[in-house]
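Re-run with default settings, no changes from the original entry. Doing this only to confirm the output is reproducible before filing.
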Amino acid sequence: MIEINNLTKKFDQFTAIDDLTFTVKEGEVLGFLGPNGAGKSTTMKLITGFLSASHGSISIDGFEISKNPIEAKSLMGYLPEGAPSYGDMTTLEFLNFVAQIRGYTGEEITRRVQRVLDEVELNSVSQQTIETLSKGFKRRVGLAQAIMHDPKVLILDEPTDGLDPNQKHHVRELIKNLARDKIVIISTHILEEVAAVCSRAIIIAQGRIVADGTPAELEARSKYHQAVSVRLSEKYDLAADLTGLAEVGDVEMDSEDNMVFRILASGGNSIFSQVSEIAQAKHWPIIEFHASRGQLEDVFRTVTQQTQGAQ
């Protein structure tokens, strides 16, 4: 378990992290979200011991990072932003080097290096120097070194940055598999990443937690939760047919397509069956018709803008 209590980090007069408190349990994949400058990377660096806290404590499986740094850090694998490595080494040389500094010798080095080459699909570039690799392959080399020692805690800062859709899918599947017996924290600005791999998400803004919950719980906070999306084949006044229906809060037209509407639910209750009955009775010219779980983007924008407005 990771336990973070009253974590604060100041740089001179600037407070980057402001009194964060949360825990992460084994088996959780935590998405750590926030706008640029919110403090995501600073928090990752504090958890991994790259920075020291101004106040508060961080405990990794019972070891406090400030008091037992070696024991705490030995439990962690870290993929920092930018995935720094030695460009003049080949992928294989670099991973062999990482295995050696992790304390492995002999056949154990060979076994562990081959395992991560296979898991992250790097065999095709094992003999290439890292400086010649694409951004996506460099990212995967960074992920390979992070899991070399099979850590209990995996800290990933923008793990799919620079990857193509197929590579993103592979890395996300790998993360889900790794999370079965680990704690995984992913710092990201990609909201689809949360829905794809995370069991929980924390949103921070200006160094403070502004939302914490499962993706489904956060989506339920969206104004589009239980909304009905409709695409028409021709112009039609939907709002007139819905007037007086208490369950309907509002009807929005898409800003880019005047044939697409979102019928918002009042009170967060399902309105799909009621709207469907009206649509059939009034013969709406429908092409598409479906209910929405809610939008993380809407929740993200709302909670982070509220924080900015409160300053």
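Residues 99 and 109 are 6 Å apart (CA to CA). The longest helix spans residues 296-310.
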